[in-house]
Amino acid sequence: MTTQRRSYETGHKPKCLVIVDDTAEWDRAVYYASRWAVRVGGGVVMLRIIAIEDQNQQWLGVADLMRAEAEDAANEALDRASGRANGIAAITPERVIREGDPTTQILDVIDKDVDISMLVLAANPGPEGPGPLISMMAQVAGSFPIPVVIVPGDLTDSDIDGLS
Questions:
Q1: CB-based contacts of 20: which residues, under 8 Å, 6+ apart?
Q2: pTM tops 0.70, yes or no
Q3: Which domains does the chain have, with CATH numbers?
Q4: pLDDT digits over 54-93, tens only?
Q5: What tens digit of pLDDT does each residue of 136-155 get?
Q6: CA–CA separation, 24 vs 154, rounded Å?
Q7: Cα–Cα distance between 63 and 52 in angstroms, integer?
Q8: Is there a contact between 18 and 106 (Cβ–Cβ < 8 Å)?
Q9: Is residue 125 exposed (0-12), middle (13-18) or buried (19+ Cβ within 10 Å)?
Q10: Cβ atoms of 89 and 38 closer than 8 Å
Q11: Beta carbons within 8 Å of 148's beta carbon, 6+ residues apart
């Protein structure tokens, strides 16, 4: 990544990137990011990544149908997350839907938006581990281009209010 961050320059505003996925704890990341955005006068970018299915299903339009259903589900998830952010902080987050490898897509969104200054994720508090995205991010954290904030999934709204 060679893109210089410009979040605090004139004409720019800092943004945090939040991944909206199918985990139960995504709400904690959205809550933290929304509260942070209000405090710093920044914004929130919500990213939903669609997994690429087997591309050999081109016959009879099955792949096109699967992609359309995945996009509908992505928009529904982003609608819920955007509604939550608006209810928390009266903000309207930017929405991005990408398809492919999560790490690649996250890095590309960051690279293309010079105002993104942090990635906010939430960790599963259960015994099964922090979640697939955090486990994956741990492998690249040392070379990641922006700070990564991990919100514990069992924090309450009031706990997060005190931190953000």
A1: 26, 30, 46, 47, 48, 77, 78, 81
A2: yes
A3: 15-162 (3.40.50.620)
A4: 555 556 677 788 888 999 999 999 999 999 999 999 999 9
A5: 888 887 888 999 999 999 99
A6: 10
A7: 10
A8: no
A9: middle
A10: yes
A11: 118, 119, 120, 121, 137, 141
